[in-house]
Specification:
α2 crosses α3. The protein is globular. Helix content is 41%, strand content 18%. By secondary structure, the protein is of the alpha+beta class.
Length: 163
């Protein structure tokens, strides 16, 4: 495995990018107390090493609701009948290919997967359950929890190291 050789400055850059990946190189450099060329070089290296997997836009569902409807956010717990590596990989691949599945976690103990699903409405969710859950003979148990409100969403890893 390749040695990552990152330091506190790299961790600070990653933290700043997690908070706002739309920062210009100049703004990022200022916040990290670096020169812009140094900042650019370090961020490029972090991308090349795969520490920055991708950059995405987080949409405000409530502000989009007048245009698109509120939709449903569902947290789904799912257990498989068989938990072999092949069975887990197969279900994970199906979940990842489904556009309604925003996040997919293998978890333990308890269910085998936790999915975060976003659907337009209840018929859309029902269609998803038939495609992804009831159509798979290996799915044993599904529990869906419908979100009524998201109080906090912070898509970042804690990058500070414990003392």
């Amino acid at each position: 495995m390749e040695s990552l050789d990152i330091d506190a400055i790299d961790l600070r850059l990653l933290e700043l990018l997690q908070e706002d990946a739309s920062l210009s190189n100049q703004a990022l450099a200022e916040r990290a107390h670096l020169s812009p060329p140094t900042c650019l070089r370090r961020v490029k290296r972090l991308r090349e090493r795969g520490l920055i997997a991708r950059e995405v836009a987080l949409l405000d569902a409530d502000r989009l609701a007048p245009l698109l409807g509120h939709g449903l956010t569902v947290v789904v717990e799912l257990s498989l009948e068989r938990q072999s590596a092949e069975a887990l990989d197969a279900f994970e691949a199906r979940a990842m290919a489904e556009p309604r599945v925003q996040q997919c976690y293998r978890v333990s103990p308890g269910p085998d997967f936790v999915l975060i699903v976003r659907c337009a409405d209840m018929p859309d969710y029902l269609s998803l359950t038939q495609r992804l859950f009831t159509g798979d003979a290996n799915v044993r148990n599904v529990k869906g929890f419908f979100s009524t409100r998201c109080a906090k969403f912070k898509p970042s890893l804690p990058l500070s190291r414990p003392l």
